[in-house]
Amino acid sequence: MKHRALFPRLYAFALTAFTAFVLLDAFVIPQSYSVVKTPAVTQGNTTNAASDPTTTANTEKAAVTATTYDNGSTKITLSTYREYDTDIYVADVTLSGADALKTAFANNTYGKNVTQTTSAMAQAQNAVLAINGDYYGARSGYVIRNGVLYRDTAASAKQQDLVIYADGTMEIVQEGDVTAQALLDKGAQQVLSFGPGLLTDGTVTVDETTEVDKARTSNPRTAIGQVDGLHYVFVVADGRTSASAGLSLYQLAQFMQGLGVRTAYNLDGGGSSTMVFGGAVVNQPTTGGDRISERKVSDIVYIG
């Protein structure tokens, strides 16, 4: 009789242990698949551009203020808007070459549960401007970064991705319509898989009921958009605080349309939403919705 009573206990213990391992493996235990060799920034000295934004990739001295950066080839203007009872931070970016628009992985490592804060990644990459990316490590979907294909498994046929081509052009595609390899062959430098797309040809492509799975209607948000040519905007909105309510996807799309954006895409939001300029975090990122601090994420989009 004692043996009969012991078996259910052992089974319950084994099941609990297995479940705990699966959860730890999925969300906690870091797994490195590939270490990325990030192209070195050509500099005339060893000064870190994230802590000293006057140091640039081509050793030129940039004109820098608290809200602007101009080295002759990269121009950035940072503005803060107050709309929808929310603080919204916009970096208006004009480049002379598309190669200045880059992405980076946490710890320069492609893997699962490998994370750093946006500001730490920005500093490591000598980024002048950075925002959090798509948090690929906690999601499925295509992953192409800086012209390298890392993951070619589709999340779903309807998953909308942002493609940034070698000439800087942005396009929103559905994974069911094209393979990752086809995008790479077409010249994709970056493929980000979060979404949804917000604007196509200047037209809002979401409505008031569109929302990211399991997200609240109003949230901190991160988005990127192309006005034309090599003219872009990086957008981060605060939220989940008494000072800022946050935005719905429809509000975010309308706001970016008002900036003259033609193509816009929603990146990871919530506690991940962070903007870094000149080495400093400029917004109020929330962790767990109850304190102002940076969440560690998988990747960033940056100007360097």
**In which order are the strands of the major sheet placed?**
2-3-4-5-17-16-18-14-15
Taken from the alpha-carbon principal axes, the silhouette is globular
SSE order, one letter for each helix or strand:
HEEEEEEEHEEEEEHEEEEEHEEEEEE
Strand element count: 23
- Secondary-structure-derived class: alpha+beta
Q: Tell me about the largest β-sheet.
A: 9 strands, antiparallel
Q: In percent, how helical is the residue content?
A: 10-25%
The whole-angstrom Rg is 21 Å
Q: How are the SSEs placed, and which strands pair?
A:
Layout: H1 2-27, E1 31-35, E2 63-64, E3 68-70, E4 74-83, E5 86-95, E6 101-105, E7 109-112, H2 118-124, E8 129-132, E9 143-145, E10 148-151, E11 160-165, E12 170-174, H3 180-185, E13 188-192, E14 197-200, E15 203-204, E16 221-228, E17 231-237, H4 249-258, E18 263-267, E19 275-277, E20 280-281, E21 286-287, E22 291-292, E23 299-303
Antiparallel strand pairs: 1-7, 2-3, 3-4, 4-5, 5-17, 6-23, 8-19, 8-23, 9-10, 11-12, 11-13, 14-15, 14-18, 16-17, 16-18, 19-20, 21-22
